Amino acid sequence: MRAIVVRKTFLAKLKPSKNRRNWRPWNFDVRCIRIEAKGDRLRVVGKLLEAEFSAVVISPGVLFANYIRFYKMIAVAPEGDLLDMDMGPDGMHVGDLFVPWKDLDAALYTDPTTAPSEQ
User: Fold this and answer.
1) Which residues contact 88 (CB under 8 A, 6 or more apart)?
2) Which of 2, 24, 76, 79 is at 20 to 30 A from 93, Cα to Cα?
3) pLDDT confidence of residue 21
4) What is the edge-to-edge ordering of all strands in the sheet holding 32-38?
5) Which residues touch 109 (CB under 8 Å, ≥6 apart)?
6) What does the alpha-carbon distance between residue 38 and residue 12 come to, in Å, rounded to a whole number?
């Protein structure tokens, strides 16, 4: 799975819809988020969060990830207007940053049609 998104938009969409002003990722009661890249859209779903927005999807897929670990990784990823997320069999690459799946507590499905809706 590989997708390119606008960094600012992606980080904003990862915040829950309620209480955005006082929001902190470690206070967000969610264990897992589902990120689906398909067509020209990226869809993010969690317990208190659901968002869909435009993305350049190079290869489709579904990623289930620990919300806090994923958010922190994206937040410290190399600066820039665009965020290039490349998920492979070994782990996730965001720019020059690499995190193996075991450290991210994540599961990758390369076919969105066969991926489960919940993990």
Assistant:
1) none
2) 24
3) 55
4) 49-54, 41-46, 32-38, 61-66, 106-109
5) 61, 62, 63, 64, 115, 116
6) 20
Q: What is the pLDDT of residues 43-78, one digit of tens each?
A: 998 877 888 989 999 999 999 988 888 888 888 877
Q: Which amino acid is at 80?
A: G
pLDDT tens-digit readout, 8-38: 888 888 876 555 555 455 455 557 889 999 9
Length of the chain, in residues: 119
Model confidence at 1, pLDDT cuts 50, 70, 90, reads very high
Burial 40-49 (b: 16+ CB within 10 A, else e): eebbbebeeb
Beta bridge mates, 52: 43
